[in-house]
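Q: Entry one of two.
A:
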Amino acid sequence: MKFSPCVGECTDEGTHCEGCGRTHEEVTETRELVNQVVQYAFGKGYENLDEYARAMGKSIQIKMQNSQ
């Protein structure tokens, strides 16, 4: 399955978002994961949020590549 990012045209009807094509369940789960990462950064009081976000993305990418 290929990931389809949010395009800012979210819908609640049916089983899938008509904007990105993902299931509403997947959208909700992804939103929850992102919220957890954001809350962690705020809880730590990080001031350099851009750097934190880039580092998290890079770490995720490396771990996924190493798991293949």
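Q: Entry two of two.
A:
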Amino acid sequence: MLKTLAWILLLVLIAATASAADLPAGHLGVATCASSVCHGSARPLPATAVQQNEYVTWSHFDPHSDAYRSLRSEKSAAIAGRLGIGPAEREPACLSCHSEYVEPASRGPRFQLEDGVGCEACHGAAFNWIASHDDRTPSTHVENLEPGLVALEKAEVRAAICAACHAGSADRFASHAMMAAGHPRLVFELDTYSELWRTSGGREHYRADADYRQRKSSSGSVAIWLAGLLENARRTLDLARSEKASSGMLPEFSLFNCYSCHRSMRLRRFRDPPGVAPGSLRFNDSAFVMLAAALDALDAPRAAQLRASTSGLQRATAQGMPALRAAASALLQELPALRLDMVAREYGPAERSALLRSVLAAAERGEYPDYAAAEQAAMAVTMLLAESGIAVHSDPEVEALFADLRDDEQFDAGRFGRILARIRQSAPH
């Protein structure tokens, strides 16, 4: 009863400080979730379906909570100085991913940009759903979704939310100028990143147990991995078609594979990918490479078609923006059918083993020729080994795989391929 009265008083306060038109999009801020009887418990509560210490886990261990503070670092100040912009903590291009950057009219009285990437950045603006989420007895997940809570357990939903910053869009992406000024290049693989986030700092953000899967009908790791690849591919193609992401005759340089230019001049350690002329500027196709490797196990003819379309995209890159936009539009039309076939299906032990073999076999054909593709392959192999029931943490070959990725300047595609070949020989058939 007291909790109900507290929420009523909070909603009355919000209504007094925002217009009716703003209320449906109201972001209430992380402080709204921080009560010790909500998500601010100092320790997990075993008697409840959720742990109720999520706010404490986020504030102490989740890198998202530090996203805004990082804009006030010396490194961010140096990047802003090189770019010739004002303080990074006031720059919309930085705030759009380092905070919940919503219009002032949509901010509740406890909302603060300084909180960084908080609860509502992923779970959605809370005004409409917070009361039922908190106080229904019992409150089902479906009841929470109806007023607007985001269904992050669904692979495609999570992919769209996470990729908005981790892969980017025409409205927010790490440009080549930002990277040249010192911003890290973007790397993204949804399942690996989801699990690293869920267990960041050695504290579980939520329990991925049988109860969670029953309540939320969550997607499995394979579907999450594939949904992330497809969303990354879609956003890359959308950027390629965007007027904003072009630099004269060429696309924005951040769309290229960094390692087609930034590579050691000792060419004995470098392989050009199949069908690409030596010295070509190469579109960043790492998501497409992994999708084609997965399709080898699911639909070999469509894998061949995807590789042909990706090669066409690479050739179009050298022909100027009109050709690139046409090739990107054509390839974009292939993705919905792939999404339907790859994400919606169930993946049993046989399918997971087949996917693992296909991803490993692609290495023998030279399909991971550089550091960007190798990163994706290593994360995929680790996930698929785990999903196939093979212990990976003590596996020396997997340790060697990631040791080979510690320094991109020392990466050797041939050595990396040999490690994958040894894993393939030891994996069950």
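A: Comment on entry two: The mean pLDDT is 85. The first helix runs from residue 2 to 17.
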